[in-house]
Amino acid sequence: MADHFLALTPDEIFELAERASREDVAVAESPLAPLMLDAADLSSYRAVVERVTEVLTQQLELPSFDEWLELYRKDRSGVEARLLGFWRDVR
């Protein structure tokens, strides 16, 4: 997740957060949407980071924790290679 987030430029981060929030508003205005759905408040950096993290989680189609744990138990090296990408030594 961190690798994908940090690959975005600051402009891309804010654009992604704003676009996702606009889509939330469009969904919330639909007669089929639950009334409690609100767009994210993007007035703080923390809110932007949270919103972009939600979007990236959906885009990356991350497994549930139980699915991840099963994969990890079957092949730790395959999971760790992806998990530790942010902390890899660059040589």
List segments where confidence is low: pLDDT < 50 over at least 5 consecutive residues: 26-40
Order of helices and strands: HHHHH
Biggest sheet record: none
N- to C-terminal distance: 22 Å
Shape call: elongated
**Structural class, please?**
mainly alpha
Could you tell me the number of beta strands?
Answer: 0
Q: What amount of the residues lies in strands?
A: under 5%
Walkthrough of the structure:
With 91 residues, this protein is mainly alpha-helical. The chain has two domains: 59 residues, no CATH class; 29 residues, no CATH class. The protein is 65% helix and 0% strand. It has five helices and no strands. The longest helix is centred in the N-terminal third of the chain and has 20 residues. The protein is elongated, with a radius of gyration of 17 Å. About 16% of the residues have low confidence.
Short description:
The protein is mainly α. Helices cover 65% and strands 0% of the residues.
Task: Give the tags.
91 residues; mainly alpha; 65% helix; 0% strand; elongated
Topology:
Blueprint lengths: L1 H5 L3 H20 L15 H16 L4 H10 L1 H8 L8
